[in-house]
Design goal:
The complex is a heterotetramer of chains A (329), B (322), C (271) and D (313).
Chain A: E1 5-16, E2 19-31, E3 36-40, H1 47-54, E4 62-71, E5 74-75, H2 81-87, E6 92-95, H3 99-102, H4 109-120, H5 125-138, H6 144-148, H7 157-169, E7 175-179, H8 187-203, E8 207-212, H9 215-221, E9 224-229, E10 232-238, H10 239-244, H11 249-257, H12 302-306, E11 312-313, E12 319-320
Helix pairs in contact in A: 4-5, 5-7, 7-8
Chain B: E1 3-16, E2 25-38, E3 42-46, H1 53-60, E4 68-73, E5 76-77, H2 83-90, E6 93-96, H3 110-115, H4 126-139, H5 156-168, E7 174-178, H6 186-203, E8 206-211, H7 214-220, E9 223-228, E10 231-237, H8 238-243, H9 248-255, H10 296-300, E11 306-309, E12 312-314
Parallel strand pairs in B: 3-8, 3-9, 6-7, 7-8
Antiparallel strand pairs in B: 1-2, 1-4, 4-5, 9-10, 10-12, 11-12
Chain D: H1 2-28, H2 34-39, H3 45-54, H4 61-73, H5 87-122, H6 127-139, H7 144-158, H8 174-208, H9 211-218, H10 223-261, H11 266-275, H12 279-307
Classes of the chains: A alpha/beta (329), B alpha/beta (322), C mainly alpha (271), D mainly alpha (313).
């Protein structure tokens, strides 16, 4: 049994005027069938590029320069552009961050949904229409028939994102790439849309690779978590492992730096300042030779600055790329 | 403690659309907002998009003029203040903006940006100005020798520090911070929040902290104002708001926020629909179409903003049980 | 700056413009003959060693006339751009900053001006006011005023709501300070790009006017005039029309190359 | 759509009034006495007086304007001083030639420009794109009338492909007429082709950066579908505006082109009237052309909605 997605030592670099930016610098993880895996990290850590790399849609001047991407046991890197087109939108689909700009403003919702069906399936317009309306109903879009004739700008942000989810799941893909699908929405809408996406994906048995910077969202929906920093995976594990036993200093810091709602159970102790990770995110064109987090890490040892840490296994599902977690053998 | 800022029944109406042949529609962006900020206190102003929180901040700053209502600053009515007195007053109330990229003029050096407001005071000569700029930069954790660099040479977090330095160099009493950390990454956000807290105690500042992020607001605020579609729905002590919210909107808002902890499944109050357009707000209580507890009266009658208990204000016909 | 020198097309454009300017300045040194000297015996001569571009209907040296033409064509376009830039910036800034009634009044007039095809308006103005250098400059300039005004107005309106301008207002800066310190410096990029386009347009339009006999009054050797005078000899001596046409194309190409490069550099959105 | 068209027409009234006022002032603010300017200073004083009275020049300016404008509304553009024929009559007789010329020029340039702009965008920063950029740059740098002269020289005189003089309207003999129109419309449309192609390229590039284009690719659409359906429909809206504006350039350019090729259109009539100091004719023509231009732009604005449904009517 192959995992739905397996990424191995992926390298995607951007060849800019000021130098080579290593947006993705040796990323590896996998997603099993029907699993929801969240890729978390701050802006510029390469999480969105990872999704675009899976579809082989890295924008100019970026290029995948190394590594392998396996979908259901097939190496996507060996696919022709034509074969890739058959994968996109059918076996792997994607949802984007800004529902305001990710739907084409010049075409109706129906036009865009029907197109998505008819690229990959031999279906009449009527059949495609049926299927689209059905899908819109599944994502709880009110009066789906009427919305088919609406233009994107006539819908609210939450409704547009439901349309995106519907389109992405129209053909029951094996993998859904969701790039910050709720970040642009209001909190109360965010929760609804997230629920709809997770439910619809589970119904169709679609595995989800959800990209987000919001750890709270991760804790609610993820089966497993991949933490990225400066183009590399620093830690991965089950949601429980990441949230209860974070192993990498970056993950630990991230979890402590978020101001969170105190629940009623907690005491009335005076507030403590937030945990601060000093320093700045390093420039991708000028990464340190060792661990990328080393300059900001309070626990760093000499080895950290000198050598890139490999992923050290901490359990069956848990691994951290940190010299402090070095395991013998 | 005395109030540094008190706004009462503040209103701002905009005309929207219209033209030669059509009458413009009236948008009540801010529709009767009242709250106060005590000296040394942080008031959190929260709400979803279109609730009028940014407009309220700009009204308090007198960046835009109110349609009705009053603004009192340090005891004096400043609602209609203009000209020189307004300029002098502005030194005492400063603003920090959301986007550290667009709030700094890209063509000015950092030192000039920070010192711009000081130029209004001829009694502060160039040397004194340079001294205060350097001091402000040091306070916010910037190196004073970077004063002759341009904003684009700094990262997002550092730019926000420049924005903060520009505010505190004027030695203000009140700082209105409009989503000051929303554009920043989590690890940088924590640095800026801690900086703001440190400055508050060091300089005796008061904050009006506008944000949509309840986690951040809860962390930094003493009292909280919750807004929905141009109106204040609840105003109370931070703890009271989060532990015992009395307005259904506040409660659903809080329950919608996920918590980054494993196994904590929040009991979520199901909320249907989205925030209605401020162009066409619902009748009566604006929240009634989404409110699980709405009754007939909520549809027809606008609930007054009233005192529920000591320090707890609410605009709801049927407040939740304590 | 470094980015400009890396842009080969822009450097080429600048080089062309510099060549044209040098030719204009040093015309007396470069021209082998007096551009106005009439010699009937040389009327309509084919190019020769002494007169490499040939002679026109009055026997004047075409090469010398083309060289002196740089002075007139560049001069007219320079003054017309200065005129339209100055007027356009003031009108646009006032309209954008103060809005409402003033904005409406100014922009209506600008709209009305834009309702005429550009060259037709210039033709009409020169036809009405008479063709002398000054009127040609005004006629060419007026057409471009609305373009500058619109750019500035648009920029002012969008900058006015930008947070850094709001920040300056909150610091108590005055209207004048805001316009001059914050708004105008940030409009420079589109202005420079539009001004380069204005040069290109003015040179082309001047040649059209001259061709119709409404440009710089003869015997002034503007490139348009040379073309206009040569067209009757076109069949016998085609090169007479080729050279001034190439001169115009060359100069305009220079401004267009420069303009494109500047837009690429100054407006990072367009790549 | 119709309602919007009518509304926009109503909104055009103030601009229209201003345009008329400007045309009026153009003649009446001439330094000196327009009557003398028209007939020359040496003319018989009685003739001057006659013209003055017939043009109403003895009245105060505002009265003259109202008078003139009122007559305009009833379709009276005045009479030509030189021929005595009503100006509007001549305009309507001459305009079809100009309309055919400018329309052919527009069709030619759009047919060339849009495909090449799209191709240049697709192959951006490659040799093909650079070649396109160079050709289009030259296109916007060459004076149109000079191009016309060169075209005459090469294709009519040297190669004999097209007639070098004479004229047959297309509505008399279509193919013959087209033969006379080919060279003028190509040289007239060359500039516009370059402008529109550059606009197409840059708005395609602008649109191709947007997320919905990436989204279209992520759906598994072929690159051509992405470009021609998703990108071009959006990129076409700004291009359409450019086409509208450029139509004005064609109307202006027609003045020169008709002079070069000796076509009996409205542009040639303007030039002849200017030479003949026939001010009522000049006024009438300029006003008429401005009106045509305004309505073209109005039509473009209405069409815009088809390509950008976000525009509200």
């Amino acid at each position: 049994m192959f995992p739905v997605l397996k990424i191995d030592d992926l390298q995607t670099h951007f060849f800019t005027r000021t130098g080579i930016a290593k947006a993705i610098d040796g990323v590896g993880f996998h997603i099993d069938k029907g699993e929801i895996v969240c890729v978390v990290g701050e802006s510029g850590c390469g999480k969105s590029m990872t999704a675009l790399s899976v579809l082989r849609l890295v924008p100019h001047p970026g290029r995948i320069v190394g590594g392998e991407i396996w979908l259901d046991g097939q190496n996507l890197m060996a696919f022709s552009e034509r074969e890739m087109r058959e994968v996109r939108g059918d076996r792997v689909s994607m949802i984007f961050q800004e529902p305001m700009v990710s739907l084409n403003p010049a075409f109706t919702i129906g036009n865009q949904l029907i197109e998505a069906v008819r690229v990959h399936r031999k279906a009449s317009r009527a059949e495609a229409w049926e299927r689209s309306v059905e899908m819109l109903r599944r994502v709880d879009l009110p009066s789906p028939e009427a919305r088919m004739n609406a233009y994107p700008h006539e819908l609210s942000g939450g409704m547009r994102q439901r349309v995106m989810i519907a389109e992405a799941l129209l053909l029951d893909p094996v993998l859904l790439l969701a790039d910050e699908p709720t970040t642009a929405l209001d909190v109360t809408v965010q929760a609804q849309v997230l629920d709809v996406m997770v439910r619809a994906a589970r119904e169709s048995g679609t595995a989800v690779m959800m990209i987000t910077h919001n750890l709270a969202v991760v804790s609610e929906i993820a089966d497993r978590v991949v933490v990225m920093y400066a183009g590399r995976v620093v830690e991965q594990g089950t949601t429980e492992e990441i949230f209860t036993r974070p192993a990498h200093p970056y993950t630990q810091g991230l979890l402590r730096a978020i101001p969170t709602l105190s629940t009623a159970a907690e005491d009335d102790a005076p507030r403590q300042p937030l945990y601060e990770m000093g320093g700045l995110v390093p420039s991708l064109t000028d990464l340190p030779p060792g661990c990328a987090f080393c300059p900001r890490c309070s626990a760093a040892i000499d080895l950290c600055a000198a050598q890139k840490p490999p992923a050290f296994p901490l359990g069956e599902t848990h691994a951290a790329a940190c010299w402090l977690r070095r395991t013998e053998g | 403690m005395a109030d540094i800022l008190a706004v009462e029944n503040l209103q701002k109406h905009f005309e929207y659309g219209g033209g030669l042949l059509r009458k413009p529609r009236l948008v009540r962006a801010v529709d009767g907002v009242s709250f106060s900020v005590r000296e040394g206190e942080t008031i959190g102003l929260v709400g979803e998009s279109g609730c009028g929180k940014s407009t309220t901040g700009r009204l308090a700053m007198r960046l835009i003029d109110a349609t009705a209502g009053s603004i009192r600053f340090a005891g004096a009515d400043i609602t209609r203040l203009g000209g020189r007195p307004l300029k002098t007053l502005r030194a005492q109330m400063q603003m920090i903006f959301q986007d550290p990229h667009s709030s700094l003029d890209p063509r000015m050096k950092v030192g000039d940006l920070i010192g711009e407001g000081l130029r209004l005071f001829p009694e502060i000569d160039a040397a004194a100005r340079a001294g205060r700029i350097a001091e402000a930069m040091e306070r916010v954790g910037l190196r004073p020798e970077h004063a002759d660099r341009y904003p684009h040479e700094f990262s997002g977090g550092q730019r926000q520090r420049i924005g903060i330095a520009r505010a505190i160099v004027m030695t203000p009493k009140l700082v209105v911070a409009d989503e000051p950390v929303s554009a920043l990454d989590v690890s940088i956000q924590a640095q800026v929040i801690n900086l703001l807290e440190r400055l508050r105690s060091d300089l005796g500042l008061s904050y009006l902290f506008i944000s949509h992020d309840l986690g951040v607001v809860e962390h930094i605020s003493d009292r909280i104002v919750v807004m929905y579609l141009g109106r204040v729905v609840e105003f109370a002590d931070c703890r009271a708001i989060f532990r015992h919210p009395r307005h259904p909107y506040t409660k659903t808002l809080i329950s919608a926020i996920p918590i980054p902890r494993f196994g904590v499944k929040r009991e979520r109050i199901p909320l249907t629909g989205e925030v209605p357009s401020p162009l066409d707000p619902p009748s009566g209580c604006h929240f009634h179409p989404r409110c699980p507890f709405a009754r007939e009266r909520c549809r027809t009658e606008t609930p007054p903003f009233r005192r529920l208990s000591d320090g707890h204000w609410i605009a709801c016909h049927h407040p939740l049980e304590d | 700056m470094a980015r400009f020198w890396a842009n080969k097309a822009g450097v080429a454009g600048l080089a062309i413009i510099v060549v044209c300017i040098l030719v204009a300045i040093f015309a007396p040194l470069l021209a082998p003959h007096d551009p106005l000297a009439i010699d009937i015996s040389l009327q309509g001569m084919e190019p020769s060693e002494a007169y490499p571009f040939g002679n026109d209907e009055f026997g004047r040296d075409i090469l010398s006339r083309v060289i002196y033409g740089a002075r007139i064509s560049l001069g007219i376009s320079l003054f017309s751009v200065i005129f339209s830039l100055g007027l356009g910036v003031v009108l646009g800034a006032v309209a954008g900053f103060y809005g409402r009634g003033i904005d409406n009044a100014i922009m209506r007039v600008m709209d009305a001006t834009m309702a005429f095809p550009a060259i037709l308006l210039a033709i009409a103005i020169v036809a009405a006011m008479g063709s002398n250098m000054f009127n040609v400059v005004i006629a060419l300039g007026i057409v471009y005023v609305p373009r500058f005004a619109r750019i500035i107005r648009g920029a002012v309106i969008s900058l006015k709501t930008r947070e850094f301008v709001e920040a300056a207002i909150s610091l108590g800066a005055s209207d004048v300070a805001i316009i001059f310190r914050h708004i105008l410096p940030n409009c420079l990029a589109p202005l420079i790009v539009q001004a380069t386009a204005g040069f290109a347009y003015a040179i082309l339009a001047e040649s059209s006017l001259s061709f119709l006999g409404l440009g710089a009054p003869p015997p002034a050797p503007s490139w348009g005039n040379i073309l206009s005078e040569s067209k009757d000899f076109m069949l016998d001596n085609p090169m007479m029309t080729v050279y001034p046409g190439l001169a115009i194309t060359f100069a305009v190409l220079g401004f267009n190359l420069l303009g494109d490069a500047l837009r690429d550099i100054l407006d990072p959105r367009l790549k | 759509m119709l309602a919007y068209f009518l509304k926009r027409t109503v909104l055009m009234v103030p601009t229209l009034l201003l345009v008329a006022l400007m045309v009026f002032l153009l003649v009446h603010l001439i330094p000196g006495d327009p009557a003398i300017v028209m007939v020359g200073a040496e003319a018989d004083p009685a003739a001057i007086e006659n013209i003055r009275r017939s043009l109403g020049l003895d009245q105060p300016l505002p009265i003259q304007f109202i008078d003139w404008f009122g007559r305009l509304l009833s379709g009276d553009f005045g009479k030509s001083i030189t021929s005595g024929i009503p100006v509007l009559e001549t305009i309507l007789e001459r305009f079809p030639t100009t309309l055919v010329l400018t329309t052919l020029a527009m069709l030619f340039s759009v047919a060339i420009a849009i495909p090449s702009g799209v191709l240049a965008a697709k192959f951006r920063n490659t040799g093909k794109d650079y070649l396109f950029m160079l050709v289009s740059l030259i296109g916007v740098s060459v004076p149109g009338f000079w191009l016309g002269l060169m075209g005459l020289l090469v294709f009519s005189v040297q190669l004999g492909w097209f007639p070098s003089s004479g004229y047959v309207p297309v509505w008399q003999d279509f193919w013959q007429g087209l033969n006379y129109m080919t060279l003028p419309s190509i040289t007239l449309g060359f500039f516009m082709a370059a402008v529109v192609a550059r606009m197409t390229r840059s708005s395609m590039l602008e649109v191709m950066r947007l997320e919905y284009v990436t989204h279209a690719r992520a759906k598994g659409l072929s690159e051509w579908t992405v470009l021609l359906k998703h990108a071009l429909k959006n990129a076409f809206a700004p291009t359409l505006t450019t086409i509208g504006i450029q139509y004005g350039m064609l109307l202006g350019g027609a003045v020169v082109t008709e002079t070069v090729f000796g076509l009996p259109g409205l542009g040639r009539f303007v030039v002849q009237s200017i030479y003949g100091r026939d001010y009522p004719a000049v006024q009438g023509c300029i006003l008429f052309i401005a009106l045509v231009y305004m309505f073209v732009n109005l039509a473009v604005d209405v069409l815009y909605k088809v390509f950008d449904p976000r525009v509200k009517f």
